[in-house]
Amino acid sequence: MHKIKKLLVANRGEISLRIMRTAKEMGIKTVAVYSEADRNSPHVKFADEAVCLGPPPSNQSYLLADKIIEVSKEMGVDAIHPGYGFLSENAAFAKKVTDAGIIFVGPSPESIEVMGSKLAAKNAVLKYGIPMVPGTDHAISDIPSAKQKAKEVGYPILIKASAGGGGKGMRIVEEESEFEEQMLRAISEAQSAFGDGAVFIEKYITSPRHIEIQVLGDQFGDVVYLFERECSIQRRHQKVIEEAPSAVVSPKMRKAMGEAAVMVAKACDYYGAGTVEFIVDENLDFYFLEMNTRLQVEHPVTEMITGKDLVQEQIWVAEGKPLSFKQEDLKINGHSLEIRVYAEDPRNNFLPDIGKLQTYIRPQGPGIRVDDGFEQGMDIPIYYDPMIAKLIVHDESREKAIQRMIRAIDDYQITGIETTLGFCRFVLEHHAFKSGGFDTKFVEKYFSPDKLDIQWDDEELVLLAGLAIEIFEKNKSSLKDSRSSQLTGNKTNWKNRLI
Ligand code: MV4
């Protein structure tokens, strides 16, 4: 047991703030780091002390492992929390931190290393009988035997880079004639992107759901699961909406997935908070894909339904305490949704939109949580992820949580930059979202920018058309030709004119 007295958060923005808030409540002093672009950021002001790392680009600031360790020593820090992104899943960094006599708030370097390789991860869990997608559990290099394997698995297949993650380095192969070309391309891409050309084959699940399990382990080998998060609503591998619990997971499936996730964690002697990622097919069969060895962006939905503070749990585990609760003590309370508010323009192919937050007013009220790292008047820097906030709601049922989220979106006032708020509203109001019957293809299937215009249902259109006819009949004589000739055009023009 080593009580942490001073914590450095090797991150920025909302997650840095979120971690420091918990630290402060635990009586732990906080040290922020920042780049020149973040000098005036809330995370810098909130910390007890703050140190500038260097110029704005991440590789000259937030990714400077040695500098961060050096700063930690100078400041008398006894623990480093890496947040997510940046150095959070860098095994070499975790090792250097530990070797410097500083606590790394996260799993061991060995766990990070194993789970950082999808092939090593598959091999680590092989003996536990965890369901996995049919495919190879070793790197493919010989073309004829790889082709043979692909044939056995059955097309379409997916070629994945062992070192890849979050959709990077994946190639779909529809038929055998494309196989060789795609395999060679996948290998060379993996080599140049990750410095590791190992690729493997999986059966391609066409329209899966993405459901992940939050786990928490201590340094004594105990691991519990904190249920699932449904993360299927994504756009180009960037998650848009997350929720807990999932609308399709039954208590029986939850237990099976949870127990599988605990075994995955135990297979790599995991401690700390981690996430085990599964894909789920149309029969609701689930398959282990990979494990993320960090606190995730979407962790708040789990906190809302379990009442646990995951950062506090991470810190206790890092201090060497045993888990403060057992599996039986956990239960799901209500429903939680999270939307990610990005500074992106959904009408313009989600291009990042930089600029000043001219107006920035957060929604308020019971069951609403906003995790952000900006204030009104600030510029959104171009150097980092364009996520400006996470809006999280909690209510007693899924339906109520959706209503609360729509209200909160309407109360969120952001001007000066385009955001994805309206896009999220579109998703939340869509019947496929409301029914729970959606998969990772939702955005591709249902979204186009014109969907952000006002949508009328048939009944409203009939009423409005009737009203228009009545007004037209009354004013027939006074309406000029030029005016009535404007009353042609496409449906969207018509609808917008009728407001
Ligand atoms: C798959 C798959 C279909 N079949 N694996 C994308 C991110 C990475 N973690 C795994 N991913 C996928 N793996 C097989 N065998 C489809 C995806 C996938 C996906 C998964 C989760 C969430 C969103 C996704 C979007 C496209 C593809």
Using the CA coordinates, give the radius of gyration: 25 Å
Average pLDDT score: 94
Strand proportion, as a percent range, falls in 15-25%
**How many strands appear in the DSSP assignment?**
22
Named once each, the bound ligands are: ligand MV4
**Alpha-carbon distance between the termini?**
65 Å
* Strand numbers in spatial order across the main sheet: 13-12-9-10-11-14-21-19
The best one-word shape is globular
Query: Structural class of the helices, strands and pairings?
Result: alpha+beta
Report on the biggest sheet.
Answer: 8 strands, antiparallel
Describe this structure in words.
With 499 residues, this protein is α+β, with helices and mostly antiparallel strands. The protein has 18 helices and 22 strands. The chain has helices at 13-25, 42-46, 65-74, 91-99, 109-116, 118-125, 143-153, 176-194, 251-267, 299-306, 310-319, 398-411, 421-429, 431-435, 442-446, 458-475, 481-485, 491-497; strands spanning 6-9, 29-35, 49-54, 79-81, 103-104, 157-161, 170-173, 199-203, 209-217, 223-235, 238-244, 272-280, 286-292, 335-342, 344-345, 351-352, 355-356, 359-361, 368-372, 379-380, 387-395, 413-415. Strands 13-12-9-10-11-14-21-19 form an eight-stranded antiparallel beta sheet. Helix 1 links the parallel strand 1 and strand 2. Helix 4 (91-99) runs antiparallel to helix 5 (109-116), helix 7 (143-153) crosses helix 8 (176-194) and helix 12 (398-411) packs antiparallel against helix 13. The longest helix has 19 residues, at 176-194. The mean pLDDT is 94. The protein binds ligand MV4. Ligand MV4 binds next to strand 8, strand 12 and strand 13.
